[in-house]
Amino acid sequence: MKKPYLIALILTLPFVSVFGQDETLYPWTDIQGRTLQASFISYDDVAQTVTIKWNGNIFPLPLNTLSVPSQQLAKQLGAPAPTPPPQPSSSPFDEVVAAMPTDALGPEALDIEHDWSSADGRPLAAKFISLVGDQLTIAMNGGEKEFTLPLSKFSDESQALAKVLQAVAKKFRPAPPKKSSVASAAQKPVKVVPPKVVEADLDKTHTWTSSEGNPVQASFLSADDTHLEVNLRGRPTKIPWSKLDAQSVALGKALQKLKKSLVPTIHGGTEKNLERYGSGKWKNYNTYIESVAFEAGILSNGTVMHIWLIKDGQRVQSRPFSASFEGTFKDERGVWGHRKVISLDSSPPASNDRRITTIKGKWNNEGTFEYSFEMSGSGLSFWGEAKEPKSTEHPSTLRVTFRSPSIVVDAKNATMEEIKKVSGDGALYVDPLQEKRIKFPFDEKWTDIKNKLAARSKDKVEYNPIKYAEFNGFPFGDHKIKIQPSSTRTASLVWYVRYGVIFPSQGSSLILRSTDGAQAMNDYKNAGDYKNRLKIKKSESLKVQVIRGS
Questions:
Q1: Is 414 in contact with 408 (CB distance < 8 Å)?
Q2: What does R_g of the chain's alpha carbons equal in angstroms?
Q3: Residue 9's pLDDT band (boundaries 50, 70, 90)?
Q4: How far apart are alpha carbons 452 and 450 in whole angstroms?
Q5: Residue of 200, 139, 201, 191 whose CA lies nearest to 165
Q6: How remote is the C-alpha of 501 from its chain's centroid?
Q7: What are phi and psi of 94, to 5 degrees?
Q8: Engineered SS bond to 210: which of 214, 326, 389, 474, CB 3.0-4.6 Å?
Q9: Helix %, strand %, coil % for the chain, to 5?
Q10: CATH of range 94-172; options 3.40.50.720, 3.50.50.60, 2.30.30.700, 3.40.50.300
Q11: For residue 86, is the peptide bond before it cis, meaning its omega torsion is within 30 degrees of 0?
């Protein structure tokens, strides 16, 4: 930012120093005969006004309002002082420089570019570096290039400006104390610990200190092998590393390393993996969404999504919820089996702004599938379909499984006090089709909860299927996460406890199938008779909604 006002300040100073310092009181009488005592400031022959200072205030008075003696006094005091003979050995601005108040300019005058001109009138913009003897050093192009030239190569105005800035530099850039050669030889280099920086630090204003000890406030923009670039008062400014102290160099390089790490690389898709981010927060994910209430990402295997609840920009839980597509079957003994994904047909580009992502591929029984994930700020949805050869020995069904994370590491060996500490008031709520809403507190055992429910009811409690399920309370913050099918008429949502689980806080699972798919699993020996067992329509999709807390 150029400051042409500096030259104007210099040019007006002779008048301030000559007239502004005269506090002599004179009698001023108007044409009505009234008189007051005031000091003279200036006289303007063109405007025919005289400016006086009375009781600390400045007043311009039209000359025709004053008496003839007061008019003559104004003209006499306003007459220019006799011009002294020229002094060729000094600059015509030396008196201006000598009259410059010490507090007229602050340290910011050393950090900005000024307008200079050569002795033959050529203009240039540059920052003042130093004036040693008659050698002036200035820097151009944001400090990239420095030049040292004789002062005589500059115009009189620029020579005066250089001397003024030299005085400012002496005040705000004190020379470091001299050290003895013995002390210098014994002194060990200061070890600089690289600062720990986070993403928010990229936008903050930092204090950068020059190698001479002068601080400046600026935010980080970028860096390379030779320079640091900062935003200094709204203007990009490059600073050579050699001009900064060791701590500022360490800060700049730490911020540059962080900035590079936040720009993710992308790996191409393969037969087994989708195109995916190769670095950064979403490494190994193909698609992700970030909202104020939650964030979610589709893993590169094409079948699983991870979901985190968000509060104040931070993930509430360390382990994510998950939703996955699965092809399942039962053999003639009723033992469960899962279809493995052996290949993916193609890959959508890695993205963070795609609403619907559809993945196609093949199972290990020659079956094919098409899974669809929908992500928006209002929630998540899952639907899909599969086809398999009619000759398949054990016909499959398609399901979407939603799993809650375990928040208890070792429930079997943990004390109840430890269980309650991590579980808090968290609970799973389910709303069965035929029963009232049921609560499963995280700090109670599954068996104890079921025994209580059985004792309260004369009839057997029917836990499944359900209309919806909901997780809320600690450790999920103030949020609620609700899981339900788009239709309970043509789709079936059930919940179950995984093998070996003692407490609900160890995690639970919810499964969505079409009604044909649910019946096929119950009648697994005749599963092939159920036409829509491999299809979950969009109108039957599993919906996940995050209700943001206060």
A1: yes
A2: 41
A3: very low
A4: 5
A5: 139
A6: 41
A7: -60, -40
A8: 214
A9: 25, 35, 40
A10: 2.30.30.700
A11: no
Alpha helices (runs of H) in 4-104, residue ranges in sequence order: 5-19, 68-78, 94-99
Distances (CA, A) of 74 to 19, 22, 278: 13, 14, 82
Residue 159 and residue 93 in contact, taking contact as beta carbons nearer than 8 Å: yes
Domain at 5-78, CATH class: mainly beta
**pLDDT at site 539:** 96
Q: What is the mean pLDDT of residues 175-190?
A: 50
**Percent share of the chain, pLDDT over 70:** 87
Choose among 131, 163, 166: nearest CA to 149: 131
Q: How far is CA 160 from the centre of its chain?
A: 45
Say if residue 108's pLDDT is above 90: no
User: How many Cβ atoms sit within 10 Å of the Cβ of residue 337?
Assistant: 12
The CATH architecture to which 194-261 belongs is Roll (2.30)
pTM for this prediction: 0.57
> Would you state the pLDDT for residue 88?
46
In this structure, the strands spanning 379-387 and 491-496 are: unpaired
* Tally: H helices and E strands in the chain: 9, 33
Q: Is 389 exposed, middle or buried (0-12, 13-18, 19+ CB in 10 A)?
A: exposed
The region of weakest confidence among 290-299, 408-417, 496-505, 528-537 is: 408-417
Q: How many residues does the chain have?
A: 550
Q: Which amino acid is at 359?
A: I
Is the pLDDT confidence value at 312 over 90?
no
35-44 and 49-54: which strand pairing? antiparallel
pLDDT of the residue at 19: 36
